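Shipment paperwork, digital attachment
Item: protein structure file
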Amino acid sequence: MHRVCLTLPTDRECPATITAMAAEAAYGAREFGAEVHLLVLDSAAPPVRAAHRRAVATLPKSPGVVVHHLDEDAQRAFLRQVIAASGVPAPERLLTLMLPTGVSYGACTNRAFLLAEALGCASVHRRDSDSRYQHLHGAPVYPIHHELATLGRPAAEITGRVDRTRLDPACAGRPVALAGGSFIGELSVDVAEIARLDPEVYHEVVGLSVPADCPAPWRRNLVEEAFRGAGTEPFTADRTTLTLVSPTRVDMCNIALAREVYGAVPLPPATDTIGSDYFLLHLVRSARLPGVLHNRHIVNFHTPERRSDAGFLAYQERFAKFLLASGPMGEVHARMAAAGDELLDAAGRLRTGTVARLVREAARGGPDGNAARLDVLDRCYRSLGGRYTAAAERFAARRDGLLAEARADMADFALLLDAWPLLAAHAKGTAVPLPEPPSPGAAAPAALL
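Attachment content:
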Protein backbone atom coordinates (compact mmCIF):
# COMPACT_ATOMS: atom_id res chain seq x y z
CA MET A 1 0.00 0.00 0.00
CA HIS A 2 1.18 3.51 -0.80
CA ARG A 3 2.24 5.00 2.54
CA VAL A 4 2.53 8.75 3.17
CA CYS A 5 3.15 11.05 6.14
CA LEU A 6 0.84 13.99 6.89
CA THR A 7 2.66 15.96 9.57
CA LEU A 8 1.93 18.75 12.02
CA PRO A 9 4.91 20.15 13.93
CA THR A 10 3.56 22.37 16.72
CA ASP A 11 4.49 24.20 19.90
CA ARG A 12 1.10 25.85 20.44
CA GLU A 13 -2.40 24.74 21.38
CA CYS A 14 -4.20 23.37 18.33
CA PRO A 15 -6.67 20.53 19.08
CA ALA A 16 -8.96 21.78 16.31
CA THR A 17 -6.14 21.58 13.77
CA ILE A 18 -5.36 18.01 14.83
CA THR A 19 -9.01 17.04 14.38
CA ALA A 20 -9.19 18.74 10.98
CA MET A 21 -5.98 17.10 9.79
CA ALA A 22 -7.26 13.69 10.86
CA ALA A 23 -10.22 14.29 8.56
CA GLU A 24 -7.83 15.20 5.73
CA ALA A 25 -5.89 12.01 6.42
CA ALA A 26 -9.12 10.01 6.26
CA TYR A 27 -9.97 11.69 2.95
CA GLY A 28 -6.59 10.75 1.52
CA ALA A 29 -6.93 7.14 2.64
CA ARG A 30 -10.50 6.86 1.37
CA GLU A 31 -10.11 8.57 -1.99
CA PHE A 32 -6.64 7.35 -2.97
CA GLY A 33 -6.25 4.06 -1.11
CA ALA A 34 -3.20 5.38 0.69
CA GLU A 35 -2.06 4.50 4.18
CA VAL A 36 -1.79 7.93 5.78
CA HIS A 37 0.35 8.35 8.87
CA LEU A 38 -0.75 11.46 10.75
CA LEU A 39 2.36 12.57 12.63
CA VAL A 40 1.96 15.22 15.35
CA LEU A 41 5.35 16.41 16.61
CA ASP A 42 4.49 18.12 19.87
CA SER A 43 6.84 20.67 21.45
CA ALA A 44 4.09 22.40 23.43
CA ALA A 45 4.06 22.90 27.19
CA PRO A 46 2.70 19.95 29.25
CA PRO A 47 -0.85 21.30 29.78
CA VAL A 48 -1.20 22.03 26.06
CA ARG A 49 0.29 18.67 25.16
CA ALA A 50 -2.27 17.00 27.40
CA ALA A 51 -5.04 18.76 25.46
CA HIS A 52 -3.51 17.43 22.26
CA ARG A 53 -3.46 13.89 23.69
CA ARG A 54 -7.14 14.20 24.48
CA ALA A 55 -7.85 15.43 20.97
CA VAL A 56 -5.97 12.46 19.49
CA ALA A 57 -7.74 10.04 21.83
CA THR A 58 -11.16 11.13 20.64
CA LEU A 59 -10.47 10.96 16.90
CA PRO A 60 -12.94 8.72 15.07
CA LYS A 61 -11.55 5.45 13.77
CA SER A 62 -10.63 5.80 10.10
CA PRO A 63 -9.51 2.91 7.88
CA GLY A 64 -6.05 3.51 6.46
CA VAL A 65 -5.13 6.20 8.99
CA VAL A 66 -2.45 5.68 11.65
CA VAL A 67 -1.90 8.45 14.21
CA HIS A 68 1.39 9.19 15.96
CA HIS A 69 1.57 11.85 18.69
CA LEU A 70 5.17 12.26 19.86
CA ASP A 71 6.45 14.65 22.49
CA GLU A 72 10.05 15.86 22.49
CA ASP A 73 11.22 13.05 24.78
CA ALA A 74 9.98 10.47 22.29
CA GLN A 75 11.46 12.40 19.39
CA ARG A 76 14.80 12.66 21.18
CA ALA A 77 14.87 8.93 21.89
CA PHE A 78 14.23 8.21 18.21
CA LEU A 79 16.94 10.63 17.09
CA ARG A 80 19.49 9.16 19.50
CA GLN A 81 18.90 5.72 18.02
CA VAL A 82 19.28 6.96 14.44
CA ILE A 83 22.37 9.05 15.15
CA ALA A 84 24.07 6.25 17.10
CA ALA A 85 23.32 3.68 14.39
CA SER A 86 24.64 6.00 11.66
CA GLY A 87 28.03 6.46 13.34
CA VAL A 88 28.26 10.06 12.15
CA PRO A 89 30.85 12.37 13.76
CA ALA A 90 29.77 14.90 16.41
CA PRO A 91 26.65 12.97 17.46
CA GLU A 92 25.68 15.30 20.31
CA ARG A 93 26.04 18.34 18.08
CA LEU A 94 23.81 16.72 15.47
CA LEU A 95 21.23 15.86 18.11
CA THR A 96 21.16 19.54 19.10
CA LEU A 97 20.72 20.57 15.46
CA MET A 98 17.86 18.13 15.05
CA LEU A 99 16.16 19.00 18.35
CA PRO A 100 17.34 22.42 19.60
CA THR A 101 16.06 24.21 22.67
CA GLY A 102 14.93 27.19 20.58
CA VAL A 103 12.27 27.32 17.87
CA SER A 104 13.53 25.93 14.56
CA TYR A 105 11.20 25.68 11.59
CA GLY A 106 13.74 23.62 9.69
CA ALA A 107 14.62 21.23 12.52
CA CYS A 108 11.02 20.31 13.33
CA THR A 109 10.43 19.42 9.70
CA ASN A 110 13.72 17.52 9.49
CA ARG A 111 12.49 15.36 12.36
CA ALA A 112 9.34 14.65 10.38
CA PHE A 113 11.50 13.65 7.40
CA LEU A 114 13.47 11.07 9.39
CA LEU A 115 10.35 9.71 11.07
CA ALA A 116 8.71 9.39 7.64
CA GLU A 117 11.75 7.37 6.53
CA ALA A 118 11.32 5.12 9.57
CA LEU A 119 7.65 4.63 8.73
CA GLY A 120 8.43 3.74 5.11
CA CYS A 121 6.59 6.71 3.64
CA ALA A 122 6.96 7.89 0.05
CA SER A 123 6.22 11.55 0.80
CA VAL A 124 5.78 14.12 3.55
CA HIS A 125 2.79 16.49 3.54
CA ARG A 126 3.19 19.40 5.96
CA ARG A 127 0.59 21.64 7.60
CA ASP A 128 0.82 24.30 10.33
CA SER A 129 -1.11 24.88 13.55
CA ASP A 130 -1.99 28.50 12.72
CA SER A 131 -3.93 27.63 9.59
CA ARG A 132 -7.20 25.98 8.58
CA TYR A 133 -8.90 24.62 5.47
CA GLN A 134 -11.17 26.48 3.11
CA HIS A 135 -14.67 25.14 2.45
CA LEU A 136 -16.72 24.88 -0.72
CA HIS A 137 -20.45 24.09 -0.48
CA GLY A 138 -19.89 23.19 3.17
CA ALA A 139 -17.12 20.65 2.54
CA PRO A 140 -13.42 21.15 3.39
CA VAL A 141 -11.05 21.68 0.47
CA TYR A 142 -8.10 19.37 1.15
CA PRO A 143 -4.70 19.97 -0.47
CA ILE A 144 -3.84 16.28 -0.09
CA HIS A 145 -6.17 15.64 -3.06
CA HIS A 146 -3.69 17.10 -5.55
CA GLU A 147 -0.65 15.94 -3.60
CA LEU A 148 -1.60 12.26 -3.74
CA ALA A 149 -2.84 12.51 -7.33
CA THR A 150 0.46 13.78 -8.70
CA LEU A 151 3.44 13.37 -6.38
CA GLY A 152 6.05 10.84 -7.47
CA ARG A 153 4.56 10.21 -10.91
CA PRO A 154 6.55 11.02 -14.07
CA ALA A 155 5.54 14.48 -15.20
CA ALA A 156 4.58 13.18 -18.65
CA GLU A 157 1.96 10.92 -17.05
CA ILE A 158 0.04 13.71 -15.37
CA THR A 159 -0.18 16.25 -18.17
CA GLY A 160 -3.75 15.13 -18.76
CA ARG A 161 -4.62 15.47 -15.08
CA VAL A 162 -3.68 19.14 -14.68
CA ASP A 163 -5.28 22.23 -16.15
CA ARG A 164 -2.07 23.73 -17.54
CA THR A 165 1.45 22.57 -18.35
CA ARG A 166 4.32 25.03 -18.24
CA LEU A 167 7.20 22.59 -18.11
CA ASP A 168 10.21 22.20 -20.37
CA PRO A 169 9.64 18.96 -22.32
CA ALA A 170 13.19 18.00 -21.35
CA CYS A 171 11.93 17.59 -17.76
CA ALA A 172 8.87 15.53 -18.67
CA GLY A 173 10.49 12.22 -17.76
CA ARG A 174 11.33 13.35 -14.26
CA PRO A 175 8.95 12.53 -11.41
CA VAL A 176 6.89 15.20 -9.70
CA ALA A 177 8.93 16.11 -6.64
CA LEU A 178 6.73 18.78 -5.10
CA ALA A 179 3.04 19.59 -4.92
CA GLY A 180 1.87 22.69 -3.14
CA GLY A 181 -0.43 25.63 -2.78
CA SER A 182 -0.30 28.86 -0.86
CA PHE A 183 -2.54 30.56 1.68
CA ILE A 184 -5.15 33.28 1.85
CA GLY A 185 -5.79 35.60 4.75
CA GLU A 186 -3.26 37.39 6.92
CA LEU A 187 0.36 37.85 5.79
CA SER A 188 2.49 34.79 6.45
CA VAL A 189 4.99 37.04 8.23
CA ASP A 190 3.56 39.36 10.86
CA VAL A 191 4.76 42.68 9.43
CA ALA A 192 1.49 44.21 8.23
CA GLU A 193 1.61 46.76 11.07
CA ILE A 194 4.88 48.14 9.70
CA ALA A 195 3.24 48.72 6.32
CA ARG A 196 0.35 50.53 8.01
CA LEU A 197 2.65 52.72 10.11
CA ASP A 198 5.03 53.69 7.29
CA PRO A 199 4.90 52.12 3.81
CA GLU A 200 8.36 53.42 2.89
CA VAL A 201 9.90 51.91 6.00
CA TYR A 202 8.13 48.65 5.14
CA HIS A 203 9.69 48.66 1.68
CA GLU A 204 13.14 49.39 3.07
CA VAL A 205 12.92 46.70 5.76
CA VAL A 206 11.42 43.94 3.62
CA GLY A 207 13.78 44.96 0.84
CA LEU A 208 16.65 43.74 3.00
CA SER A 209 15.62 40.21 2.00
CA VAL A 210 16.00 40.97 -1.72
CA PRO A 211 19.43 40.53 -3.40
CA ALA A 212 21.33 43.81 -3.54
CA ASP A 213 21.83 43.60 -7.32
CA CYS A 214 18.10 43.26 -8.03
CA PRO A 215 16.90 46.12 -10.31
CA ALA A 216 14.78 48.73 -8.53
CA PRO A 217 11.45 47.98 -10.31
CA TRP A 218 11.82 44.23 -9.66
CA ARG A 219 12.80 44.92 -6.07
CA ARG A 220 9.66 46.94 -5.46
CA ASN A 221 7.47 44.23 -7.02
CA LEU A 222 9.12 41.53 -4.92
CA VAL A 223 8.54 43.56 -1.77
CA GLU A 224 4.92 44.20 -2.72
CA GLU A 225 4.29 40.48 -3.23
CA ALA A 226 6.26 39.25 -0.22
CA PHE A 227 4.36 37.29 2.44
CA ARG A 228 0.96 37.86 0.74
CA GLY A 229 0.46 34.33 -0.57
CA ALA A 230 -2.60 34.05 -2.79
CA GLY A 231 -4.27 37.16 -1.40
CA THR A 232 -7.83 36.90 -0.18
CA GLU A 233 -9.79 35.31 -3.05
CA PRO A 234 -11.62 32.20 -1.74
CA PHE A 235 -11.58 28.84 -3.47
CA THR A 236 -14.30 28.30 -6.10
CA ALA A 237 -12.83 25.67 -8.44
CA ASP A 238 -9.61 23.71 -8.91
CA ARG A 239 -6.73 25.13 -10.95
CA THR A 240 -3.57 23.07 -11.32
CA THR A 241 -0.33 23.72 -13.18
CA LEU A 242 2.54 21.37 -13.94
CA THR A 243 5.64 23.55 -13.78
CA LEU A 244 8.89 24.37 -12.04
CA VAL A 245 7.22 25.78 -8.94
CA SER A 246 8.38 29.18 -7.74
CA PRO A 247 9.04 29.29 -3.97
CA THR A 248 7.03 32.52 -3.82
CA ARG A 249 3.88 30.72 -5.00
CA VAL A 250 3.66 28.08 -2.28
CA ASP A 251 3.78 28.05 1.50
CA MET A 252 5.19 25.55 3.96
CA CYS A 253 1.76 25.16 5.57
CA ASN A 254 0.56 23.68 2.28
CA ILE A 255 3.33 21.58 0.80
CA ALA A 256 4.19 17.98 -0.03
CA LEU A 257 7.63 16.67 -0.98
CA ALA A 258 8.69 13.32 -2.39
CA ARG A 259 11.19 11.34 -0.30
CA GLU A 260 13.68 11.60 -3.17
CA VAL A 261 14.00 15.27 -2.12
CA TYR A 262 14.04 15.19 1.69
CA GLY A 263 15.82 11.83 1.78
CA ALA A 264 18.78 13.53 0.10
CA VAL A 265 18.78 17.06 1.52
CA PRO A 266 17.51 18.44 4.86
CA LEU A 267 16.35 21.93 5.76
CA PRO A 268 18.64 24.47 7.47
CA PRO A 269 18.39 23.90 11.24
CA ALA A 270 18.75 27.59 12.20
CA THR A 271 16.91 28.53 15.40
CA ASP A 272 14.57 31.49 15.86
CA THR A 273 14.69 32.28 12.14
CA ILE A 274 11.48 32.48 10.13
CA GLY A 275 11.67 31.26 6.55
CA SER A 276 14.49 28.79 7.23
CA ASP A 277 12.23 25.95 6.10
CA TYR A 278 11.86 27.16 2.50
CA PHE A 279 15.26 25.95 1.29
CA LEU A 280 14.03 22.78 -0.42
CA LEU A 281 11.56 24.77 -2.50
CA HIS A 282 14.49 26.68 -4.01
CA LEU A 283 16.46 23.46 -4.48
CA VAL A 284 13.63 21.66 -6.29
CA ARG A 285 13.19 24.55 -8.71
CA SER A 286 16.93 24.99 -9.30
CA ALA A 287 17.37 21.28 -10.02
CA ARG A 288 14.50 21.54 -12.52
CA LEU A 289 12.42 18.90 -10.77
CA PRO A 290 8.75 19.06 -11.81
CA GLY A 291 6.12 20.29 -9.41
CA VAL A 292 2.37 20.82 -9.34
CA LEU A 293 1.02 24.17 -8.24
CA HIS A 294 -2.60 24.09 -7.06
CA ASN A 295 -5.06 26.58 -5.59
CA ARG A 296 -6.42 24.65 -2.61
CA HIS A 297 -5.00 27.37 -0.43
CA ILE A 298 -4.87 27.18 3.35
CA VAL A 299 -6.41 29.98 5.45
CA ASN A 300 -3.66 31.68 7.48
CA PHE A 301 -4.25 33.46 10.79
CA HIS A 302 -2.11 34.86 13.59
CA THR A 303 -2.33 33.58 17.15
CA PRO A 304 -2.97 36.05 20.01
CA GLU A 305 0.38 35.25 21.65
CA ARG A 306 2.17 37.01 18.80
CA ARG A 307 0.41 40.26 19.77
CA SER A 308 1.66 40.23 23.39
CA ASP A 309 4.71 42.32 24.26
CA ALA A 310 6.88 39.26 24.84
CA GLY A 311 5.54 37.51 21.75
CA PHE A 312 6.08 40.64 19.66
CA LEU A 313 9.74 40.98 20.64
CA ALA A 314 10.44 37.28 20.11
CA TYR A 315 8.81 37.35 16.70
CA GLN A 316 10.62 40.49 15.59
CA GLU A 317 13.93 38.87 16.50
CA ARG A 318 13.00 35.86 14.35
CA PHE A 319 12.21 38.26 11.54
CA ALA A 320 15.53 40.05 12.02
CA LYS A 321 17.36 36.73 11.83
CA PHE A 322 15.48 35.94 8.62
CA LEU A 323 16.78 39.20 7.14
CA LEU A 324 20.33 38.35 8.23
CA ALA A 325 20.03 34.86 6.74
CA SER A 326 18.82 36.32 3.44
CA GLY A 327 22.31 37.45 2.44
CA PRO A 328 24.28 34.20 2.64
CA MET A 329 21.29 32.01 1.85
CA GLY A 330 20.44 34.16 -1.14
CA GLU A 331 23.95 33.47 -2.38
CA VAL A 332 23.35 29.73 -2.00
CA HIS A 333 20.09 30.05 -3.93
CA ALA A 334 21.91 31.89 -6.73
CA ARG A 335 24.63 29.25 -6.87
CA MET A 336 22.03 26.46 -7.01
CA ALA A 337 20.16 28.21 -9.81
CA ALA A 338 23.41 28.50 -11.76
CA ALA A 339 24.22 24.83 -11.14
CA GLY A 340 20.86 23.64 -12.50
CA ASP A 341 21.05 20.03 -13.69
CA GLU A 342 24.47 19.66 -12.05
CA LEU A 343 22.53 19.29 -8.78
CA LEU A 344 21.41 15.86 -10.06
CA ASP A 345 23.46 12.73 -10.64
CA ALA A 346 23.22 10.53 -13.73
CA ALA A 347 20.17 8.77 -12.27
CA GLY A 348 18.40 12.08 -11.63
CA ARG A 349 18.95 12.02 -7.86
CA LEU A 350 19.87 15.12 -5.89
CA ARG A 351 23.56 15.37 -5.04
CA THR A 352 23.80 16.07 -1.31
CA GLY A 353 27.53 16.73 -1.55
CA THR A 354 27.07 19.36 -4.24
CA VAL A 355 24.54 21.23 -2.11
CA ALA A 356 26.90 21.05 0.89
CA ARG A 357 29.73 22.46 -1.23
CA LEU A 358 27.59 25.38 -2.41
CA VAL A 359 26.61 26.16 1.19
CA ARG A 360 30.26 26.18 2.26
CA GLU A 361 31.29 28.32 -0.71
CA ALA A 362 28.65 30.89 0.15
CA ALA A 363 29.68 30.86 3.81
CA ARG A 364 33.32 31.48 2.83
CA GLY A 365 32.41 34.34 0.52
CA GLY A 366 33.24 37.98 1.04
CA PRO A 367 31.48 40.37 3.44
CA ASP A 368 27.85 39.38 3.75
CA GLY A 369 26.51 42.85 4.51
CA ASN A 370 24.77 41.78 7.69
CA ALA A 371 26.23 44.57 9.80
CA ALA A 372 24.74 47.04 7.31
CA ARG A 373 21.41 45.19 7.43
CA LEU A 374 21.28 45.57 11.19
CA ASP A 375 22.07 49.29 10.83
CA VAL A 376 19.13 49.74 8.45
CA LEU A 377 16.85 47.73 10.71
CA ASP A 378 17.87 49.78 13.75
CA ARG A 379 17.21 53.10 12.00
CA CYS A 380 13.89 51.99 10.52
CA TYR A 381 12.53 50.47 13.72
CA ARG A 382 13.46 53.50 15.81
CA SER A 383 11.64 55.70 13.31
CA LEU A 384 8.46 53.70 13.94
CA GLY A 385 8.64 54.24 17.71
CA GLY A 386 6.69 52.38 20.38
CA ARG A 387 7.33 48.67 20.57
CA TYR A 388 9.59 48.87 17.52
CA THR A 389 12.01 51.03 19.47
CA ALA A 390 12.10 48.30 22.11
CA ALA A 391 12.84 45.76 19.36
CA ALA A 392 15.65 47.98 18.04
CA GLU A 393 17.11 48.11 21.55
CA ARG A 394 16.98 44.33 21.73
CA PHE A 395 18.75 44.00 18.39
CA ALA A 396 21.42 46.47 19.50
CA ALA A 397 22.04 44.59 22.74
CA ARG A 398 22.39 41.33 20.80
CA ARG A 399 24.19 42.75 17.77
CA ASP A 400 27.41 40.71 18.02
CA GLY A 401 25.45 37.58 18.89
CA LEU A 402 23.05 37.98 15.97
CA LEU A 403 25.91 38.43 13.50
CA ALA A 404 27.78 35.44 14.92
CA GLU A 405 24.66 33.25 14.84
CA ALA A 406 24.04 34.06 11.17
CA ARG A 407 27.56 32.84 10.34
CA ALA A 408 27.29 29.76 12.57
CA ASP A 409 23.94 28.80 11.03
CA MET A 410 25.59 28.27 7.65
CA ALA A 411 28.31 26.07 9.18
CA ASP A 412 25.69 24.08 11.06
CA PHE A 413 23.72 23.52 7.87
CA ALA A 414 26.82 22.24 6.08
CA LEU A 415 27.50 19.85 9.00
CA LEU A 416 23.97 18.49 8.85
CA LEU A 417 24.19 18.10 5.07
CA ASP A 418 27.33 15.98 5.45
CA ALA A 419 25.56 13.66 7.90
CA TRP A 420 22.14 13.56 6.26
CA PRO A 421 22.51 10.62 3.84
CA LEU A 422 23.63 8.38 6.70
CA LEU A 423 20.89 9.66 9.01
CA ALA A 424 18.22 9.07 6.38
CA ALA A 425 19.53 5.60 5.60
CA HIS A 426 19.64 4.52 9.24
CA ALA A 427 16.23 6.03 10.02
CA LYS A 428 14.75 3.28 7.84
CA GLY A 429 13.91 0.37 10.06
CA THR A 430 14.31 2.33 13.29
CA ALA A 431 11.29 1.81 15.51
CA VAL A 432 9.03 4.82 15.91
CA PRO A 433 8.33 5.42 19.62
CA LEU A 434 4.89 4.64 20.96
CA PRO A 435 2.72 7.73 21.55
CA GLU A 436 2.07 9.10 25.00
CA PRO A 437 -0.86 7.32 26.68
CA PRO A 438 -4.06 9.33 26.98
CA SER A 439 -4.88 10.82 30.36
CA PRO A 440 -6.97 8.63 32.72
CA GLY A 441 -10.61 8.45 31.75
CA ALA A 442 -10.04 9.51 28.15
CA ALA A 443 -11.45 7.48 25.29
CA ALA A 444 -9.13 4.96 23.67
CA PRO A 445 -7.21 6.27 20.62
CA ALA A 446 -8.76 5.49 17.27
CA ALA A 447 -5.66 4.21 15.47
CA LEU A 448 -2.38 4.61 17.29
CA LEU A 449 0.81 2.79 16.45
